[in-house]
Q: What sequence folds into this?
């Protein structure tokens, strides 16, 4: 199985949203967003890592396409992590805060 076709380095676009500021969602909860409203998105090249993305190296067990696929899946997982945090926060509080703002809070406090 090649698997390399999915790890082509293309940026996956995010969902809809306001460019910045606050608005109301369909249930009346507050929406706080930041950034450019593109939903963030990560690339396989690893722009989400400071200092560059550590790359997996092929060996006798893991082919280059295996490593590419694993790096793609890890990048997608890391991006979806903040969307999961956003959803969980909304479910608990009724406040919709943009995933990038949540991520920025963790970065600001030195947790990422």
A:
């Amino acid at each position: 199985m090649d698997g390399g076709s999915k790890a082509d380095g293309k940026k996956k676009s995010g969902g809809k949203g306001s460019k910045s500021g606050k608005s109301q969602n369909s249930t009346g909860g507050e929406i706080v967003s930041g950034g450019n409203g593109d939903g963030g998105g990560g690339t396989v090249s690893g722009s989400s890592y400071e200092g560059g993305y550590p790359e997996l190296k092929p060996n006798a067990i893991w082919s280059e396409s295996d490593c590419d696929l694993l790096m793609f899946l890890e990048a997608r997982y890391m991006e979806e992590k903040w969307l999961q945090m956003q959803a969980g926060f909304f479910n608990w509080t009724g406040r919709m805060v943009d995933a990038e703002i949540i991520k920025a809070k963790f970065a600001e406090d030195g947790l990422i």
Summary: Helices lie at 64-93, 99-108. The longest strand covers residues 21-24. The chain is about 35% helix and 10% strand.
